Amino acid sequence: MEWLVVLIPTLPLVAAIVTASLGPRVLRSQSHLPVVIALALSLLCSLVLVVQVQRGYTENSDTGFEVPIQLWSWAVIEDAHVPEISGLTAAGKSLDEPITRPFRVDITLRADALTATMLAMVTFISTLVALFSVGYMHDDRGYWRFFTYLGLFVFSMTMLVSVSNFLLLFVFWEGVGVCSYLLIGFWYTRPSAAAAGKKAFLVNRVGDFGLIIAVFLIWTTYGTVNYHDVLHTPAGKVVVDSKTVQEAVSEKAAGMDPGSTLIRGVLGQSRIKTNDFVIGPDGELVVLAICLLFLLGACGKSAQFPLHIWLPDAMEGPTPVSALIHAATMVTAGVYLVVRCTPLFAACPTAQLIVACVGGFTALLAAVIALTQFDLKRVLAYSTISQLGYMFLALGTGTMAGITAGFFHLFTHAFFKALLFLGAGSVMHAMGDVIDMRKFGGLRHILPKTHLTFLCGCLALAGIPLFSGFWSKDQIVKAVKEKADQLEVSAVTLADLDTVASAPPEKQVFTIPPPWSASIYRWLHWSAMFTALLTAFYTFRAYYLTFWGRQYVPEEADHPHEPASMWRPLAVLSVCALAIGGVLEIYHQPAGYLQQTPSLSGESFIPKLDGEVALISSVIALAGVGIASVLYLGDRPFVGWLQAFFEFRWLSRVTRRAVYCSPYRLSSEKFYLDELYGCVVIWPLRTLANISGIVDRWLIDGLVNLIGWLPRFAGWMVRSLHKGLLQFYALGMVLGLLLLVLWMWWIR
Amino acid sequence: MPVDLETILILVPEGALILSATALFVLGAADRRRSWWPVCATLPLLFALVMVVRDWGRPVLYSGPLIQDATGDTGRLLSVVLGLVMVLMAWRQTRRKLATEFFGGLLMVVAGLMLVSRANDLVFLFLGTELVSIPTYMLLFLGKRNRASSEATVKYFFLSLLASALFLYGVSFVYGMSGTTLLVGSGDLLGIRDKLPEIMQSQIGGLLPLGLVLVLAGLGFKITAVPFHFYAPDVYQGTTNVNAAFLACAPKIAGILALTRIVVNVVPAEFYLGAKLVIVLAIVTMTVGNVCALWQTHVRRLMAYSSIAHAGYLLIGLALGLASASSGGLHGLSAMLFYLVLYVVATLGTFGAFAYVRSRGEEAEHLDDLAGLSQTHAPIAAMLAVCMLSLAGIPPLAGFWGKLTLFSGAVELAFDMTHPMRGWFAVLAVAGALNAAIAAAYYLRVILVMYFKPPHSDSPVTADHGLQTVVAICSVLLVLIGADPGRLLDAIEPQAVRARQVPVEPELGMNAPDGEQIPE
Q1: Which value does ipTM take for this structure?
Q2: Closest chain A residue to the Cα of B167, Cα to Cα
């Protein structure tokens, strides 16, 4: 198993290096070969890994199953961590942990159910996307560059999900960010692409800032940045194997092994067993801070409100990149992070509520914006934001049902969203890089294969019963509903017991009373259902606009075609989009498999299909599709009228300004968020930068030049002494000596 | 003064060199072709090298005017290697007709350097330095036969005489007070070192600093310390590149070795007055050297000012040695020797490269002659760049470690809260750092000219493999020492073993001599 985990990221890295070194000269139009082969092999390894993790779990299934694999030490600083006095009690409470700890960053990978699932998903989608790109990117000048970046991205992403250390997580978090930047700005000669790359990078920095602060806090709080437990034996060996560690811990508890010391990982099994996440008097506040900073990081990477603005612009990159990075894999890193840190979030219900609110609000906001966009890829981008919001909403419930539902949605969404993006890419390829839905229509006869596969994706995204999206979205809605129910019940009991009033005052600050949170979750439940309606509507609006109606193509489309290398991956993905949700649902796989991860093995449950919720979801989805069909199939008589209505044209007689804050305008102008950021953040910063630039150029540079000029001036003065006259030289020597002697006499 | 067989035996290499030089002078007259003389000069040098290496690490031995110790070994080795490198450089560069005179003079100088590094007697020391100086006049004159060269030679001759006079004057003071010129006595013979406590107690003890300042002035000329530096730019400019290389190295080695000897043996421990003097000299010297170098466009003049600046850096080590009797001071002295070695290597490489490049049939004179060297002669440009960067003290080249050991010594004393001169050393460290920054400007300008200016149409090089080898050896050495500086530093360190045991007399008085003491 060890070599599998190492091999999965290594293969794409090697492929990227090979492509980078041989691509421009030797491989040329065959530059895809190393990457495609490596990705396929990685996929194979990932699938084997999934099976092996399952097998390992069945052999040893008491506390979940994890295999940390330590490769080498990156940095070791002995005795770096000395907890404050307040922390001592917490340290003493546990099993004789050392008071001072080394700062160790070990290059440690891990194999567990969560990682294996992510790896399988990432390598599967990336393999298909790489195959698709062979057709899509052919004849591009940067063909080898594209595949180099692709390999590098897959390396970073697989490392991101398989490292067992928060610092390394941050490293590869940045790594995928860099690859995303490079690929968004892949056509760097286009100003819009360069600007979009920059925007994505800068917005992500805000989130990354939160993430790194959270890692610092983790270090100061827990004295380690590892996920897993580490046992230091007296012989100086470092043991990470969870089974050995657990045995040693029990031996230690029995007093058999005095020598070795245990450093409990942040998400290690020993810590989970004792549920020891709140340390010290301000522990609750610290955990809340860590969770919220993690959430900030996740919001950046996963494009959640208010940091979602980069994702739509990121569509400037090549479409396969949008499919892989900005729909299926990288943007789910935030979701992965929150799932990974479930025990931390579980220790802090307030943080969970905030996660849920951010998710629910983003889902609604993005869905509303998606209603009125005409750029096919932008519709899909907002849809991605919206679906990611769903995932966060599910994670925010904090229940096992919610977390597995969120992760399940991540999994299914990856397939159908990648499919939709690749379909959009196929359309774009055929239409000569035109993506505005107003410029083409009725393409179902021109691009029959794309049409069918795109339809599969739409069905899954809209949540039509029995297709992938339906199952996972249904679980999310159900989890939110259950959470609300559960909180309402507990609110009643708590009110009876009057516990809230008797809780210590400082704790009340960070805890929202259950009746409030119950009603918040209830609202989120309604909003999620409404968002589902909008999702079904905008999905099919885009579908009808593209493939139905009068057939016309833009001038740029000189030869609409669908190469086999492009539609074959689409076909594979559409099968997944249709079936994968149902198959997994029937076998209860997502929840059961995921619970093999130690940090998710808290409560055991089997998700059941709730008939009522399922029925309502189906009705909502079908209603959305129905509305879209009425409006956009055929002659579209109502569209113009509806647009005028929602644009408040009827108010224009009263005031013209009403148009600008009409629902239609708000949606099509993305709620003016970009403009708002422009005024509030960008303009002041740019002004400050300009002022600093002026100060730097005139004041600082002037001073520096003045200082640089001083030695030259001194040199000019002194050099006039060297006139070449022998007598003067001799005089100079003697006078100098005289001066020295006098000076010496003086200071004596 | 008793000179026994032992003394003569340990002088075998020096004697061999002098005899060979005499033979060259005499026999050279008989041969007209004169193509084999470089070989004849190499053989005695190789013999000396073998002897020096064989004698390496022998126990400390005092034998009358001679001393055999680690400092002496280091100096001897450096001298012989310098001689060999100079032969290699001058192999094709000397005019055939004058070859025997040139190489004979060179052997004499090497012998003089070796004597200086072993001298245990002030008179002997003077003899050694003169054995370096006098052949140098001849070498300078042999280099080029034109007005500029003659003028340079005459300038050097007269000013060198003046410096020797100052040195002797200082020695006479020391002799007057101690009654001996022997530095360290052996057996029942007492040296200055042994009489030092007695001198300090006596009435005239205050005159010792005056004598030492005069000695410092004489030796300051050799190492081109301000205000005894005036000759350097003119003389370097007037002579050939090979001679300039020689002039930048040989007197400096002699001066530094002599200063080390005197500081270790004659100067009272913790001689703060002297340390203050040397600190001022160091700061002034490096500043003058660097700021003047900023204006130069003539390569040898540039290097002359550069060598003045480096003398300033070297004086930092001397100041450390004077101010601190503890390991810090001795560390400073060994840092000075370490820096000297690195300076010699880089300077030889630089002048070798300058001699290699020819422009319009002449030797490279102006910076412009180096324009575009990276395109026309990439290897030599790269090697010259290495030498320049090392002189500028850019890590990881050797020069960086040299500056680091010197400056860190000063910084160490500056942060030593108990040391009475910590303020002085703080100023010295800051001045050193500032000067290193200024110096980077003109060294980098040479690189800029080589790499970013278009080449001249005609800049052929002399097909001189000797020069090529020298430059290659020097630049490779700089890189290697830079990669592992500890090895060389350790080899130089043992001279610090001889701790100074002279009792401390903190407030050293000086019975104010007036102006009449000063030679006019």
Answers
A1: 0.86
A2: A737
Instruction: Tell me if chain B has a CB within 8 Å of the CB of A633.
Output: no
- Tokens at B227, concatenated: 């205000």
Rounded to whole angstroms, the Cα distance separating B350 from B373 reads 14
Asked if the Cβ–Cβ distance from A748 to B210 is below 8 Å, we say no
* Interchain pair B162, A721: CB under 8 A: no
- Short-list A86, A443, A450, CA closest to A286: A86
Interface mutation vs chain B, best among A710, A727, A741, most B CBs within 10 Å? A741
Question: DSSP letter at A441?
Answer: B
Quick one: closest CA in A to B516, which residue?
A738
Check: CB of residue B307 under 8 Å from CB of residue B249. no
Cβ-defined contact of B291 to A718 (cutoff 8 Å): yes
Say whether B144 sits in a helix, a strand or coil.
Answer: coil
**Which chain B residue is nearest to residue A711, measuring alpha carbons?**
B291
Instruction: Show which residues on chain B lie within 8 Å of chain A, measured between beta carbons.
Output: 154-155, 158-159, 162-163, 166, 209-210, 213-214, 217, 221, 226-228, 230-231, 233-234, 273, 276-277, 280-281, 287-288, 290-295, 438, 441, 509-510, 512-513, 515, 517-520
Smallest CA–CA separation between A704 and chain B, in Å? 13
Residue to substitute from A731, A740, A746, interface B, most B β-carbons within 10 A: A740
Q: Which of A726, A737, A740 sits opposite B158 (nearest CB)?
A: A726
Q: Per DSSP, what are the bridge partners of residue A165?
A: A226
Give A730's contacts in chain B (Cβ within 8 Å): 158-159, 162
Rounded to whole angstroms, the Cα distance separating A480 from A488 reads 12
Helices (H), A347-435: 349-370, 376-397, 400-430
List C-alpha distances in Å: A16 to A175, A317, B140.
14, 19, 63
Residue B45, CA distances (Å) to B21, B57, B466, B471 in order = 11, 20, 16, 20
Burial A84-97 (b: 16+ CB within 10 A, else e): eeebeebbeeeeeb
**Chain A to chain B Cβ contacts (< 8 Å):** 95
Q: Which of A348, A105, A77 is nearest to A227 (CA)?
A: A105
The pLDDT profile of chain B, 520 residues, written as one tens digit per residue, is 456 777 777 888 999 999 999 998 888 878 766 667 888 889 999 999 999 988 887 777 777 788 888 788 888 999 999 999 999 998 887 777 788 889 999 999 999 999 999 888 899 999 999 999 999 999 988 877 788 888 889 999 999 999 999 999 999 998 988 888 888 877 777 888 888 888 878 877 778 888 889 999 999 999 999 889 999 999 999 888 899 999 999 999 999 999 988 887 777 767 788 889 999 999 999 999 999 999 899 999 999 999 999 999 999 999 988 887 665 667 788 889 999 999 999 999 999 999 888 765 677 788 888 888 888 888 899 999 999 999 999 988 999 999 999 998 899 888 888 888 889 999 999 999 999 999 999 999 999 999 998 887 665 666 678 888 999 999 999 999 998 888 888 777 655 444 343 333 333 433 333 333 334 3
Q: How many angstroms away from the CA of A24 is the closest CA of chain B? A: 27
Choose, out of A704, A719, A742, the residue to mutate when testing the contact with B (most B CBs < 10 Å). A719
